[in-house]
Design a protein that fits this description.
Length: 161
């Protein structure tokens, strides 16, 4: 999580946020959002800290963290790749696209590449059924894909470094 002084400063900042928000109704979501903003994700240590400081069960914090897709238990990569696995994309062989991404990135869905550049996610419908199969990298949609298209698309993001 970084050096000790840096981590302690982040926990101190979070403690201030919790103190401020605890007085308001429904404080858990805003506290967790701020914690993710501070730490980049919500690892176990951060969830435990929130539970203790807010005097609520750890299961409540974990339940919210895992239910809402806006929360990440691990840091996300610089670029998030969502592979649509909705019905239209699945029928149009999205699994081949996902397999190609896994092979080229050496990452499975739900994980981040060791260099921190990409996070791979298998998602529900992206609402681009007419372009099936599709992937979304950050806010950019790529459609009517074939596995051989993946290398060139990833190259666009690798070359931005």
């Amino acid at each position: 999580m970084g050096n000790t002084a840096e981590v302690q400063a982040k926990f101190d900042e979070l403690k201030g946020v919790i103190y401020e928000m605890k007085q308001k109704p429904g404080p858990l979501m805003p506290v967790m959002q701020k914690a993710q903003e501070i730490f980049g994700s919500l690892p176990f240590e951060v969830q435990k800290f929130i539970a203790e400081e807010m005097n609520i069960p750890m299961t409540d914090v974990y339940g919210v963290a895992t239910f809402y897709s806006q929360f990440a238990l691990e840091p996300k990569g610089k670029h998030v790749i969502g592979v649509c696995m909705g019905t239209a994309c699945y029928v149009k062989k999205a699994e081949g696209i996902l397999n190609q991404l896994e092979e080229e990135l050496q990452a499975e869905p739900g994980t981040t590449t060791p260099d921190g550049l990409f996070t791979l996610e298998a998602t529900r419908c992206l609402g681009c059924c007419g372009l099936a199969p599709v992937i979304m990298i950050d806010d950019q949609v790529y459609g009517r894909l074939k596995p051989e298209d993946i290398s060139g698309i990833l190259g666009l993001y690798k070359n931005k470094q």
